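To fix ideas, we quote verbatim one protein's residues and fold tokens.
>
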Amino acid sequence: MAPDAARRSDRSRRAILAAALELVETVGYAKLTIEAVAARAGVGKQTIYRWWPSKGPLLFDAFVELSAVGRAVRPWGDLGDDLKAELRDAIGELVERRFDQVCRVLVHEARTDLVTLLLTPRRVVMEQRLATAQRAGEIRGDVDVPAAVELLLGPVYHRWLLRTGPLTGTFSDTVVDLTLRALRG
């Protein structure tokens, strides 16, 4: 029986994505080459070029596909604690060497859709959590939930992008505390 080409292709594709992330963390974006990714993934570079025209789109796909892997959905508890945990997780992603280097390059290359795609799952969780809190009376009924999520995420990504200060759990906890004061008002 002949090997299943679709299964082999998926296995190769995932190996390429994983290799790209491993290498960008090791050597950085500037020194990352398609040849090195191909060697690490055990494929020919023509296989990579069949799916991606360059390292930018390759890393874009790697982040989008593999960043959500292993992301646990935690049970909700105290509203403040839940929001603090989400922002701390966001900071954890932002300060990862592979994320930081590549995202900065891609943002400067006008690939802001990468940041948007990475933020979407976190936004959804935070919107769900705030909507639940609103129904339970933990925050005011007139709060615009999507705008409230922007109040929470905006300072974190602003600080990351402009490097205006350290990204720490203390910073994100302060953002949550200040935002909740306004939402509970």
Notes: Residues 112-135 form the longest helix (24 residues). The domain at 79-184 is CATH 1.10.357.10 (Tetracycline Repressor; domain 2). The chain is about 75% helix and 0% strand.
